[in-house]
Task: structure prediction
Amino acid sequence: MDNGLHRSSNEAVVVENLHKQFGDLEVLRGVSLRAHEGDVLSIIGSSGSGKSTLLRCINLLELPTSGEIKVAGEAILFNKTKKGLVPTDIKQVERLRTKLGMVFQSFNLWSHMTVLQNVMEVPIHVLKLPKAEAREQAEHFLNRVGLWEKRDQFPAFLSGGQQQRAAIARALAIGPRVMLFDEPTSALDPELVGEVLKVIKDLANEGRTMILVTHEMKFARDVSNQVIFLHNGLVEESGTSQQVFYETQSERCKAFVSSIH
Result:
């Protein structure tokens, strides 16, 4: 798929020389990436390569040890401490987080709320949307992911695939500039993977900006216009889908992606 049709010159997310340490373990060792509006950027690599940590740093669910992050052209302000970087302005972080819709491996839906309430919660309480407007918007996005008929169910009564689609609707409801997906199918039974990948592919075809951490190699190859291969906390290979999957100069990357040929 050529997402170049949707691509803009505006930078949606920029990461420069990002490092992240957990104690003595350096998980990210100077990672940089650049996603423009309309890009679908997939981050691939073996377990422990730093993929999920990178995504969580972009959303500041993990604080980087050093480096720079820009969201929608705005640099996140940090103070340097002995333990690493600490946000200077919590209000800036809260504001920039509304530009990033995060979808986790394990759905993270609120179990005491219906699907509809899950999708309405942040627009009402964080974005201060009127309840009627938030409901209309939530129903729109639930319909968009094929869950309108399940809107009054609680998450426990949904399949894993339905829960993940509800989580995608919840992320869309904040009107993000960028969607972040952290291995969105890794917790699903194999027969449920396809329904979630279809929703994500449809979003890509709409021209939404997305950064995906995924182990679904064929999916990454088909939907991405940019791919980054991480190895031991470093970018071992990056480029277009064609370059990374078919023209890579890295032997490690070649071995990693060979399973899809």
Remarks:
- The longest helix spans residues 190-205.
- The two ends are 17 Å apart (CA to CA).
